[in-house]
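hey m, so remember when u said the tokens were messed up on ur end? i reran from scratch. heres the input so u can diff it against urs
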Amino acid sequence: MKIRLEEEADYLEVEKMVRDSFWNIYRPGAFEHFIVHQLRDDESFIRNLAYVIEEDGKIIAHICYSKGYLQFENQREDAVVLGPVAIAKDYQNQGLGTKLIRYTLDLAEEYPYVFVIGDENYYRIFGFVSASKYNIYLDGTDLEEENPFFMIKVFDEDELSEELAIFHNPDVFNVNADEVDEFDRQFEYRKKLVLEGQLGV
């Protein structure tokens, strides 16, 4: 088992694995594999932080990072966000996600901070805290409420101010469902299911 940079030859295998790992988890079907696909040709993509875990010639985990931005009252700054991160179904709950996140966060220290949107109880172990602690909020959320799932890991406190800022994901995170369906035609058919626990269900 080894951790290595993603290569172009990995792209389709990675997308299949990401699709399978997210299918029917957060919504009927999945968007995450399409986001990964779109990111690679987008200027927001951080290519030197896209890593895979490979075992016996098979890719069993993947992570990527990209640049969104912070909107302040009078300026805008690039800001790094982690994800998506995916682990193949047969390898989940074995610590591979933790290993891959720790490995790449060590490499991401060249940036002053990294954001993530996810389970606060999980990402806390990597040093992430609620971004609202720094007066930073996710676009589209209520500024009067703490959103514990929107988190930040700070490497350089001096690069942060107390000024209110709104974080915006890269545009490719805003997917069109019809485009995802068209993209999915190249993969094996899987039925979309509405399941309890999905977003909005």
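this time it looks ok to me. Residues 11-22 form the longest helix (12 residues). if urs says something different then somethings off w ur setup not the seq
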